[in-house]
Amino acid sequence: MRTRSDIECWLTDMDGVLVHENTPVPGASALLQQWRDQGTPFLVLTNNSIFTPRDLSARLRASGLTVPEESIWTSALATADFLRSQMPGGTAFVIGEAGLTTALHEAGFIMTETDPDYVVVGETRNYSFEAITKAIRFIGAGARFIATNPDATGPSTDGLLPATGAITALITKATGMEPYVVGKPNPMMFRSALNRIGAHSENTGMIGDRMDTDIVAGIEAGLHTVLVLTGISDPAEIERFPFRPDEVLDSVADLLAREVLESEEADIL
């Protein structure tokens, strides 16, 4: 049975694990520094397909966390990676933002509104009736239906917002076609992340705050799973699921080496 000492590479969720409402989780900055100092390969994962890795790196930096863009893996990048493996140089009609369109362009895809190979739906704050109608018609005509992530809602300062899963549900109702979802909880996203850093499931850990996405996908991808209680899941929710993470920790601070933890505590004092 694997233990944490067997882990040589890490994948970690972002929201609820490293940051919470744009505020760093205590211990997150020190853990990232510890990985850099030790030369530990890692990737920060997010189902958010709105932003490019460069955008997200800047947002994290503004929150006090240093994560280079090459260490960020989004559902948009995973989707582009998957589509490139399926149909190199294909075409797509895209409902989404720069994070998704940039990833698809860099993967060699052509954006089109004429007989696309794929309809790809990601996160956006600008869903339009016209675009959704086009997507429905393209899928009806034979385009393959892809979604970056299944999240039905997203947070905002004013409350919940409809997200990718809500829009794909509308399209599914109109077409009778379910999308293939690349992002979490599809372990496909983790496998593409492992390939990105040349890691193997046998020696890689996954840190997340959600049982229904991070942990189940980590288990299905064969990773060592760590649930932290700084985000969505709490001990009561864990009991609702038929599977268990390998570890349950209060926060990422519990992953710090003792000397790093003592240094951080001294800085706080």
Would you tell me the overall average pLDDT?
92
Beta-strand percentage range: 15-25%
Say what oligomer this is: single chain
Which sequence of SSEs, written as H and E, runs from N to C? EEEHEHEHEHEEHEEEHEHEHEHEH
Protein structure class: alpha/beta
The helical percent reads 25-40%
Shape: globular
How many alpha or pi helices?
Answer: 10
Q: What distance lies between the first and last C-alpha atoms, to the nearest angstrom?
A: 39 Å
Task: Specify the biggest β-sheet.
Answer: 6 strands, parallel
The strand order across the widest sheet is: 5-4-1-13-14-15
The parts where pLDDT drops under 50 for at least 5 residues are: none
Rg, Cα atoms, Å: 19 Å
**Quantity of strands, as a count:** 15
In short:
This is HAD family hydrolase. A 6-stranded parallel beta sheet has the order 5-4-1-13-14-15, with helices on both faces. Strands 7-6-8-9-12 form a 5-stranded parallel beta sheet, sandwiched between helices. α3 (75-86) runs parallel beside α4 (98-106) and α3 (75-86) crosses α7 (187-197).
Keywords, separated by commas or semicolons:
single chain; 269 residues; five-stranded parallel beta sheet; 15 strands
Structure overview:
This protein has 269 residues and is α/β, with parallel strands linked by helices. It has helices at 28-38, 53-62, 75-86, 98-106, 129-140, 164-175, 187-197, 211-220, 235-238, 258-268; strands spanning 9-13, 19-20, 23-24, 42-46, 72-74, 91-95, 110-111, 118-121, 144-147, 153-154, 161-162, 180-181, 204-208, 224-228, 247-249. The chain has 10 helices and 15 strands. Strands 5-4-1-13-14-15 form a 6-stranded parallel sheet, with helices on both faces. It has a 5-stranded parallel sheet with strand order 7-6-8-9-12, with helices on both faces. Strands 2-3 form a two-stranded antiparallel ribbon. The protein starts with 8 loop residues before the first strand and ends with a helix. β2 and β3 (23-24) form a beta hairpin.
